[in-house]
Each structure stands twice: as C-alpha cells, then as structure tokens.
C-alpha cells in the first residue's frame, strides 16, 4: 500500500505541471520552451555578476543569452524592444552606438554595420535572446557558455569600465588589517532615531487534523516580528503563540525574544571605546576557548568587525526562523547543512567550518508560500592579524537563569555570567589574546582565565590558547593550524583538557579532541564546479571512551542539477568493545523556469544496511506569484509514507496558502496560512504592504531625480525619474523607481555596508549621468534608510585634432584637449587618439571653450584654435569641433616658458 501510494503521489506532483505546460502553442510563440530554460552563473573575468541569469539551450548545444540582461550586468547601455524586434543604445560608453534590427538582419556597432543570421536569435516577451558566440562577436568579447556547468564566463577583448572599477577595488583591498580599505565611495550617514520604521511581519495558521474516526481542530498559531528604531537603537521583537477564541486571554504568547542594538562597521560607537556593536536583550556572545558557549538575556559591547569570525576556523550563525520556513546553508556554493521549521522559531548552525582565505556563506530561506530569501555573509580566514597597536574586545554580562528575556522558564534567582575576550596587535604577523569568564554549571560557579597567541607566516596561520579554571586549578590547552596549498585548504586543531574539566553545556568529560579538514579538493578535474571536503575527528573521554569520525562531503553541478553527497564513518570504543557505523545522505535539486525539483535520501551501510528516509518534492510556478508545492516522504523502516500538497499565492499586499497532508497511518491534516508584511516609507509616511517578509533584512528608500540646478538637493520643481534600476554590491537589484522616483530596495544584508549605484542602462537618456557612481550606506532591519540619487544632464563634444606639418594637415595624437567654463576653470580633459580623434564627456549644460592644453602648446611651440560651444539644458552631442595646431613663428618658438595660448581662427 505504501509503495503504491508513493508512486501515485509522485506521479501526481510530476505530471500535473507537465499537463499544465503541455498545451498547444500559438503559431507566433517562440520555438524555445520552458524545457530549454537554464539558470546560469555569470562571471566577468572571475567576478560573479549573477547566479541565476535566465538563458535557453537550443538545438546543437548552443546557448541563447538575453541581450538587455547581459547589457545590464555589464553596465552597457543597451535596451531591447522585443515587440518591435529592435534594440539600441551604446556599448560601454555613449560614443559607441549599438543598433539591432532583426527584421532587416542588420546590426551596427560603433557605426559599423554588418549582417547576421536571424535564426541565431529568439525574440521572447521579456527580451531578445542571442546566441552566445554571435553576441560575443557584436560586443568584442569571448563568451564561454558552458551547459554542463550552467555557467557563463565573459572575457572582453578590451577592459570594460566595470572591469576597471572592479580592478581598482581589488587593488585597494587590505589583506593585513582586519578592516578592509574604503573603496572611496561617499558614505551616507543613517543615524538611529528615537522612533523609526517599523516593519512588521505577521503570519497566522489554522489547521484541521483527522483520521478515520474523528476530526479535530489543531492549535491556531501566530508568529510575528517587529523591527525598527526605538530609543536610538534598532529593536527586533519576535513573538509567537496560540490563538484560542474560547479562552481568556484570546491570544497566548509562548515564545518571545527582544533585542536592541546599535551596529557600526566603522567602529565609532561609545566614543573612545571604538565599539562596532552594542546590544541589549537576547544576545549571543561568541564562544570562549575552554569555557564554551555563553548565552542569555543581558548586555554586550564588542569592537570586533561585524563580519569576522572570532573563532580560529569556525563560525556560528543563528537567527529567526518563522513558522513553515526552512533554511539551507551553502559555503562557496557547497551545501553544508539544513535546518527545518521548529517550535523555537530559530535556527543555529554551530561551528561552521571555514576554509583558509575567502568564505562566502549563503543562507537560503524557503517559505511556506513558495517565497525565497537569501542572506550572504563573507569571512576572510588567515592574513587577518590585527594591526600593531590596535585591539578588539568583547564584553558581556548575561543572566543564565533564563533562555530569553521574555521567557517564562527563568528561575527565581538570577545567575549572572560575565565574559571578556580581547585581541591585541603585537606585530604585523603576531596577535595576542586574553579571556576572563565566570559561568554557572549546575550549581557551581566556574571562573576561567586564559591567554593565547595567533601568528601568521607566509600562507600559514597558527593559534595557541591556554585556559585555567581558577576554582579547581585545572588547565585546558588548544592549538590550531590553517594553511592553503592552492586550491586546497588545510585545517588542524587540538584541544586537551585535564581530568575533571567542565565547560558550559558539557554532557561528558572530554580529555582530548583532535579535528582535521581538507577543503577545496577537486574530485573531477574536468568539472570546475565539483568540490569535496574531507574531515577527521577523534575525541577521548575521561571514562575511557573514544570516538572517531571520518567524513566526506562532495558537491557537483551536472546538467543544471546541484547534488551534494555526505558519507560518514563512526567508530566507538569502550571497555574493550567496539561499535562501528557507516552512513550517509544525498541531496539533489534542479531549478528550471517555473519548476523546482528536490530529492533527498538518508541511508546506513553498516552495521545493518538500510534506507532510513527518501523524500521527493518540488514546486511549480504557474506565474511569478502562484505556486504549487508538494513532497512525498517514505520511511522504509516503519513502512510509512507521508505526502503533502499545497497551493499559495503571494500578492502585493499579502500572501496566503493552503496545504494538505496524508499519511499511510490514515491520518490527515489541512491548514490555511495567511501572511502580511508592512513597512513604513519614511519620506511620505506611507505604509507599504507586501506578501514578502520585510522585517528581517535591511531596506533603503532611494529617490532618483533630475538635478537641473546641480545643487544636489531635490527641489520641488525637479523631475523624479521612474523605472530606474540599481546595483547593490555589484549585483543587479530587482526593484525600480515608481512615478515619484522612489524605490524601496528590499532584502539587503543588515548592519553591514552596502554599495548602491544607479544602473545607468536604465536611464532613458544616454546623456544623463548619476552624480555619484556609487554610495555606501549601512541598512538595518525595520527602518528604510533614505538615499537621494541626483542625476545630471551632460553633453558630449568630439572632433579631430590636426597639426600643420610642411603645409600639410596631419592627425595629432596624444594632444591634451580641455573644456573650460566661463570662469576659466578646466571642467574636463582628454587625450586625442592615434588618429587625432578626441571626445569630452560628462560636460555640464552651458557655454564652454574647447582648447588644447596651454602648457602642451607652449612646450610643442604650436598655436591652437579655440572653439566656443553651447550645450543646451537637455544635453547634446556636438561633433566636428576640430582643433588645428600650427607652428609658432621662430621668434615665439624660443619662448618655451611662455604658457599663454595663441588663438587662431577656427578652421
């Protein structure tokens, strides 16, 4: 019965989407279908620009790329008009025009027209899709589209402005200090307010349970998070409980957390203390070597960088997880772990292993209405010694008698816990640390004191810590080593404790613990997306027990399918006996347009081979906001099958969904869930309702306007610009401005710097330029930080520079050409090319003079023409402003120190 039900439900989940999609296609619909769609990773010379670019595979293995989509990622000013089968704009800069006319089979780049085969192009509703090789020919770049790796690697023949900016940022990065260099973007302050925001997320669930004999109502639950500014701090309040109309009170709260904090990546809090974080409420200080984890309601002050692991080679991530949500953890694209929804409405990933060098940790949250949200954290391990003379510290005072500030499990007597840790930079390659903590374990108060050294030598980091428990006089030692042998990262740690040593939350006395890891292995050299990690651990206990564990994690991407496999071997020894267990799990996911398929299995090989669980699930999107999801789980050990099916819709103001489930034990359930999120926009005081969660991430209220008087202030009569897009941290952001020029940029990393810039490709006039190429701000939960983006109208002037040589006119390369305003101030400079051509861009409206640099004219003993030009208010392209260099008479040529400009009539 269980096998039959499993087959039927699996077929239903898979075939329903196929049946919906298998309708008869209109004659004018493109030949590509959703089955050809492939989401790809896009990289520009090694820098990731997008992880989910929509592409299509066609016959012969060729890949079709979106013209405007690629242009926007590369910051090219190309716009496509699928209805007219045309595209236009410029390539990299306004002087390099681009024009595509599919009907006539003509493309023009920088004034050079050519023909092409229209069969290599597909016109869809959202964009014009061009074969990758053909698009590379048009844009003068090599585009490597790899179907097996689901990746696109772009290598321009000449550096793009985007590449040059990225190169400047890389050159400016700081590998020694634990703070990175400022990329020289203007920083916009976002001061905390007495009252600001808020953002409110609310979810309610109604459920019915039943079996063959009865139907009963389950608990009707709710959960909410409120975040915003309160008392000049950022407040986050989480509440959950039961709604019962027959009881008093009507609402019963069974779980609550409250946190108030200030965060500054620059470390300018509390004046001379230089704190980066001040927190009150349910805090989570970092663990201390030898003492363990310290948590509970209290107060914490820290000056450690916001996104830096304070442990040697691990980091712990925790946070809020609403009802019906689960979260996946990826490190550098490798799936590491998974946390399902739980009654505590929280997730914690403890001791996440970090590789030597750069680590990108990505948390992907999956919601009950088919909603997805991503958080990204960056950590640099190694080469992060504190600069000599600097220090970082963390101090906390907590009450260990309760799990949270709003919990009811606290004992009558408080149990204050004090902790302190700090790092001091001794030299460029050596950092000293110390710690002090008083904690309660059972009824005993333990006092820890410790010191340590962390050193860096070439590509190796070494750490040593020693801790003493003052009451008992026992010692604990810890040592670690990290290094990298490209592309492999190695880690080794040793922890040694004297008998009777106690740590917080310890269930068994440990004598010694050894762990080792090898990360970054490439099991398949021909597959760059494959990665493997190997780990070993051995733990010895006071009672003579010993536990060993060997583990392998491998991740691969094949034909768009991401699959991760874990294999573990454990050996337990005690009193001469030995127990061994060999087990593992596999996880695979495939994402195509409108469809997501997942498969997970857990199994054991020894001592008894069996499959513990098989889960198959997926989602189908009828449209971007309507989702059908389903899953089937089969447990061979108990011969039970559980199946679920749900529909959800995410509207502009709220989301709702209905889910049903059935078990082979003849029990069933049906549930209805409603979700609503509210965010207050601070400029107009209006509330924005959404079906997406808004309270957990940072938000920005961005205003874009045409600054006609160039005072950088939005005056009443200045025009707001709509449909303007943005880049956030070099990634394309989906939100655009409305008719009032305002966009709410959502889902931003909270409490860390975000670099925000206008996507110039979305400005309707090529002569419009943002005043600031990018600005830097620190978003925070609940309060939409305001940013203004003034846009100026500019002009472009171009022409030729010629010189007279033996009464013949010849091009003059390498000549400095200047634009000068009415006050005599040089407002723009450029140098003529090999053919004498010059171009001055970003010129303000009004009168200006075009001339050759007086210093260069005097040095070369030439007199130059002076041209007067008028750029109108709307901006303009002005061509053929030619300059002529004529040799000075002999009596002037000897006066090379005379830098005055000799004007002659324009040609």
UniProtKB/TrEMBL annotation:
InterPro entries: Ig-like_fold. GO terms for molecular function: carboxypeptidase activity. Keywords: Carboxypeptidase, Hydrolase, Protease. SUPFAM superfamilies: Hypothetical protein PA1324. Residues 888-907 are annotated as: Disordered. This is Carboxypeptidase regulatory-like domain-containing protein.
């Amino acid at each position: 019965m269980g096998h039959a039900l499993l087959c039927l439900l699996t077929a239903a989940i898979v075939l329903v989407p196929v049946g919906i999609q298998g309708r008869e296609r209109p004659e004018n619909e493109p030949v590509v279908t959703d089955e050809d769609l492939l989401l790809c990773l896009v990289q520009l010379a090694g820098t990731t620009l997008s992880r989910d670019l929509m592409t299509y595979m066609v016959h012969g293995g060729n890949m079709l790329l979106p013209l405007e989509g690629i242009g926007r990622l590369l910051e090219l000013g190309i716009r496509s008009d699928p209805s007219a089968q045309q595209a236009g704009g410029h390539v990299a800069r306004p002087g390099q025009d681009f024009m595509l006319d599919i009907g006539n089979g003509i493309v023009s780049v920088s004034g050079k027209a050519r023909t092409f085969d229209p069969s290599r192009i597909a016109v869809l509703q959202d964009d014009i899709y061009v074969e990758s090789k053909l698009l590379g020919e048009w844009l003068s770049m090599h585009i490597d589209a790899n179907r097996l790796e689901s990746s696109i690697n772009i290598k321009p023949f000449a550096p793009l402005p985007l590449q040059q900016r990225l190169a400047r940022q890389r050159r400016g990065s700081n590998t020694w200090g634990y703070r990175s260099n400022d990329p020289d973007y203007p920083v916009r302050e976002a001061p905390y307010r007495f009252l600001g925001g808020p953002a409110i997320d609310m979810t309610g669930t109604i459920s019915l349970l039943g079996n063959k004999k009865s139907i009963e109502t389950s608990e009707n639950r709710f959960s909410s998070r409120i975040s915003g500014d309160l008392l000049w701090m950022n407040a986050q309040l989480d509440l959950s409980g039961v709604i019962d109309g027959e009881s008093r009170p009507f609402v019963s709260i069974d779980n609550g957390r409250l946190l108030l904090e200030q965060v500054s990546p620059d470390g300018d809090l509390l004046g001379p203390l230089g704190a980066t974080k001040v927190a009150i409420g349910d805090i989570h200080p970092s663990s201390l070597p030898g003492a363990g984890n310290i948590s509970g309601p209290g107060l914490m002050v820290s000056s450690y960088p916001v996104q830096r692991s304070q442990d040697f080679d691990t980091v712990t991530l925790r946070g809020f997880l609403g009802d019906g949500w689960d979260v996946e953890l990826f490190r550098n694209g490798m799936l590491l772990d998974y946390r399902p929804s739980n009654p505590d409405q929280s997730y914690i990933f403890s001791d996440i292993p970090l590789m030597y060098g750069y680590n990108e940790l990505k948390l992907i949250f999956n919601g009950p209405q088919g909603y997805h949200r991503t958080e990204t954290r960056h950590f640099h391990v190694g080469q992060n010694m504190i600069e000599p003379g600097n220090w970082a510290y963390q101090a906390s005072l907590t009450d260990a008698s309760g799990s949270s500030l709003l919990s009811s499990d606290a004992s009558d007597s408080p149990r204050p816990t004090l902790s302190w840790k700090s790092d001091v930079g001794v030299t460029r390659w050596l950092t000293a640390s110390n710690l002090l903590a008083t904690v309660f374990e059972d009824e005993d108060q333990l006092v820890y004191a410790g010191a340590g050294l962390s050193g860096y030598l070439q590509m190796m980091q070494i750490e040593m810590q020693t801790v003493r428990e003052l009451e008992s006089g026992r010692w604990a030692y810890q040592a670690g080593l990290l290094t990298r042998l490209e592309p492999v990262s190695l880690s080794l740690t040793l922890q040694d404790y004297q008998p009777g040593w106690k740590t917080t939350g310890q269930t068994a006395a440990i004598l010694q613990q050894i762990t080792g890891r090898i990360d970054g292995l490439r099991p398949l050299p021909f597959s760059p997306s494959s990665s493997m990690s190997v780990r070993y651990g051995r733990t010895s206990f006071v009672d003579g027990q010993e536990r060993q564990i060997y583990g392998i994690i491998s991740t691969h991407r094949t034909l768009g399918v991401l699959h991760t496999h874990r294999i573990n071997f454990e050996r337990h020894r005690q009193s001469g006996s030995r127990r061994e267990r060999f087990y593992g799990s596999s996880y695979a996911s495939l994402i195509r347009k409108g469809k997501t398929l997942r498969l997970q299995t857990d199994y054991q090989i020894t001592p008894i081979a069996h499959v513990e669980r098989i889960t198959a699930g997926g989602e189908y999107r009828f449209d971007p906001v309507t989702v059908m999801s389903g899953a089937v789980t089969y447990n061979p050990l108990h011969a039970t099958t559980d199946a679920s099916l749900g529909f959800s819709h995410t509207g502009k103001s709220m989301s709702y969904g209905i889910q049903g489930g059935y078990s082979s034990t003849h029990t069933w359930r049906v549930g209805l869930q409603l979700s609503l999120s509210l965010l207050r926009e601070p400029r107009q005081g209006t509330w924005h309702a959404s079906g997406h969660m808004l309270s957990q991430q940072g938000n920005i209220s961005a205003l874009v306007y045409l600054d006609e008087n160039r005072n950088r202030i939005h005056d009443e009569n200045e025009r707001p610009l709509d449909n303007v897009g943005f880049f956030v941290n070099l990634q394309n952001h989906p939100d655009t401005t409305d008719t009032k020029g305002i966009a709410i940029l959502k889902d931003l990393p909270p409490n860390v710097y975000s670099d925000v810039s206008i996507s110039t490709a979305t400005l309707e006039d090529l002569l419009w330029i943002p005043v600031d190429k990018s600005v830097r701000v620190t978003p925070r939960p609940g309060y939409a930080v305001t940013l203004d983006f003034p846009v100026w109208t500019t002009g472009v002037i171009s022409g030729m520079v010629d010189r007279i040589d033996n009464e013949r006119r010849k091009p003059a390369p390498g000549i400095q050409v200047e634009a000068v305003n009415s006050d005599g101030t040089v407002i723009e400079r450029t140098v003529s090319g090999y053919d004498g051509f010059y171009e001055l861009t970003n010129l303000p409206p009004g009168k200006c003079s075009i001339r050759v640099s007086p210093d260069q004219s005097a040095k070369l003993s030439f007199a130059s023409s002076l041209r007067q030009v008028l750029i109108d208010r709307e901006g303009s392209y002005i061509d053929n402003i030619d300059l002529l260099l004529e040799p000075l008479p002999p009596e002037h040529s000897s006066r090379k120190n005379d830098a005055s400009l000799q004007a002659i009539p324009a040609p």
